[in-house]
Design goal:
- The chain has about 190 residues and is an alpha/beta fold.
- It has one domain.
- Helix content is about 35%, strand content about 10%.
- It contains six helices and five strands; from the N terminus they run H-H-E-H-E-H-E-H-E-E-H.
- Strands 3-2-1-4-5 form a five-stranded parallel sheet, sandwiched between helices.
- About 35% of the residues are buried.
Length: about 190
């Protein structure tokens, strides 16, 4: 799914998809959101995690960190840049998203949380077998949800991600050349 979504970024989406993404963005992103004061947290979970229990999905490829590690990273960025006021949280896994929301509300209550309104959160990176994950969802909803999340995260200055996802602050245990670079915070130490 991630490869498919990335490929769509290079092609012109159909007019219905453009309208759907635009509508979802209007419902999700506050009009006064300042990207310079925003952290993006796209949580990879479900089928991505080694040892997952998602039926019908391939083996995981990521040693998924606990949600408290995402919280720690958000708090580190806030210490580095105390003007942060927003955090965009998305995930294909509803439980991971809700779990981080609870942590953020408890530990950083002044931070405004921005969510992908109407996100499918089907639990996998795939649009197949949706009926077993999310009632009433279809493949078009999954694509619109994923692309909306991607567009939302384009409105963030900082990101908390894993090396098997995107870039900037790596909080995972996986190692590769990019992860080593990302752990340095691009030359800045956030702690």
């Amino acid at each position: 799914m991630a490869i498919f979504v990335a490929a769509l970024a290079y092609f012109r989406p159909k007019p219905w998809l453009v309208r759907e993404i635009d509508e979802r963005l209007r419902r999700s992103v506050p009009s006064d959101l300042n990207p310079d004061r925003t952290i993006g947290v796209p949580i990879r979970r479900g089928h991505k995690c080694i040892g997952h229990s998602v039926q019908g999905s391939a083996a995981g490829e990521l040693d998924c960190p606990p949600l408290s590690t995402y919280l720690d990273a958000v708090q580190s960025i806030i210490r580095f840049d105390p003007l942060i006021e927003n955090v965009i949280v998305t995930s294909e896994d509803k439980n991971a998203c809700n779990g981080l929301l609870q942590l953020l509300k408890k530990e950083v209550p002044d931070l405004r949380i921005v969510l992908n309104v109407g996100d499918v959160q089907q639990g996998t990176g795939s649009g197949s077998k949706l009926e077993q994950y999310e009632e009433g969802a279809n493949n078009a909803d999954v694509i619109a949800s994923a692309l909306t999340s991607m567009h939302m995260h384009l409105r963030a200055r900082y990101f908390v991600v894993t090396t098997k996802s995107t870039f900037v602050v790596d909080i995972g245990k996986n190692t590769n050349d990019f992860g080593s670079f990302a752990r340095t915070g691009c030359g800045n130490n956030f702690d």
